[in-house]
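Known limitations

Files may contain more than one protein. Parsers should not assume a single record per file. Below, a two-record file is shown to illustrate correct handling: read the sequence, read the C-alpha cell line, then continue until end of file.
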Amino acid sequence: MQQPDPERGPERGPDPDRGRGPDLDPDLDPDLDPATEQPPPSRAEPAELAGRLRAVIQQLLPLLRGLSRHRDLTPSRTAALAALAAHGPLRVSELATRMNIALSTTSRMVDLLDNCGWIARRPDPADQRASLISLNDDGLALLRTVRRETTGLLSERIAQLAPDRQQLLYEALPALEELVAGEKPPTGPQPR
C-alpha cells in the first residue's frame, strides 16, 4: 500500500483540474460556458436559427389558437382580418398578394368573412367593376378581442419563464421585428 506523501496530504483520487491551466477554469475564465466548460460558439448559424425559430413558431401558433374561444376564426381568416386592418381597404387581388395565396382561395375567404359580417365591400372608385374590402366595426372588434386574448395567453406563458429568460426574449425582439419590417408582398404569380 502506498504511503501518503506528507507534503501533499492524503491521496484523494485524480484531480479534475490537473492538466488544466487557469485559462480553462470556468470560475476564472468568464468566456467559458459554466454548464459545458467550453467556449461558447463564435456565432449562431443562420440556418440553425431559422430552423429553430420556424419550429418554435409552428408550436406556438397552434397553442395560441387552441386556447382561443373563437373557433370559427381560422389562422388564414385572422391573417386576412389583420391585413385588412393594417393595409385596407384592398381589392381581393391585393389581399391575395399580401397573404401570398391564390386569388380563388382569397375570393372564397372574402365571401366567408362577408357572410360572417366582419368586412364591408364597396365599389373601387378607380374601377367600378372592382370592389374594395375593409374591416367593418364587428371585424375590427373581433380582431382586437382575439389579439387581446392571445396576448394575455402569451403573457401568462412568458411570466412562467425565469427572469433571465424573459430578458433574453425581450432582447431578441428587435431582431425579430427587423425580420418582418422590410417584408414586401411578393409580386407576380406564386408557385404552388
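...continuing to the second record:
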Amino acid sequence: MHIGTGVVHVHPGGGILSTPRFVISGSLVIVGPYAGAEEHERHLLVTEGAGNWQDSGEDEFRFDANDGRLVSLLLQVPDGASTADASGDGWATTSVEASGLQLAQAEGMSVPRCVSTRVTAPGGMLLCTTEAGSTAEADGRRRLRVAPDVDLLFSGSVYAGWMLHNPSAYLSAGWDVTTPSRPDPELAECLAEYLTLGDGRLLEALEDGDSAIVDALRALTARIPADRGNERGRRILRDCIDEFLDFWQ
C-alpha cells in the first residue's frame, strides 16, 4: 500500500488508541498521544514519516521509529465543504477493516493533499478525499479503521483520503484531549451547516460586507443553545463562529 511516496503494510488490529480531536477553528483533525505544542514537537522528533516540521501545513502520518507502527495523524480539512448523501459518495458503504499500518519505506515521504471535503446530512460523517479518492471506482476501494471513528481510504493500493465519523462528538478548542460525547443530533446538524458555509464564497461575501451571510451565521449560533446536549461541543462551535464574525466585522 502507498501513502503518497511512502510504502506501508496493513495488519489486522493494532490501530492508534488516541481519541480524535476535531479542532474546528484550525480546520484540523488530530489523532495522537500529545496534548500541546511542545509535546507535539517532541513527538515529531521521535517518530518518522510525513510532516517532519511543526506548522509545515502538511498532513502528518507519523510512525514509531523503532517498530514502524502508525502512531499519530494530523489531518488538514480543506475549505469548501459540500453536502454528501448518507453513503458518503459510496465510501460509507465500503466495508470497514480494523487495521494497523506499519511503515516499510519512508525516506522523503510526502502525502498528497485532500482536495475535497464533504459532510453527510445531518452531520454524521466528515469525508476528505484526494484527487484519487474523488474519482475512485467502487470495486477498488478500501477503508481501514486505524483509530476510533477514523478511517483511512485507499483506491486500489493508493491513499485516497480519510473519514471522521460523528465529528460533532470530537469537537476540540485546541490541543486539549477530548472525551467522546453522547450523540447530539442538533449540534451535528448545525456543525454540518457551518462546514458547508465555510468556503471561498463565505470569505468573499464577508469581505464585501454581505449582511445576509452575517445574519445567517448569527442565526446559526442562535440555534446552538449551550445549555443542553453536548454542552462543551456547542460552546466550541458557538465560540468559533463568534470569533470568525468578530474578525471580519
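Parsers that stop after the first record will miss the second one. For reference, the second record is described as follows. Residues 117 and 128 are 4 Å apart (CA to CA).
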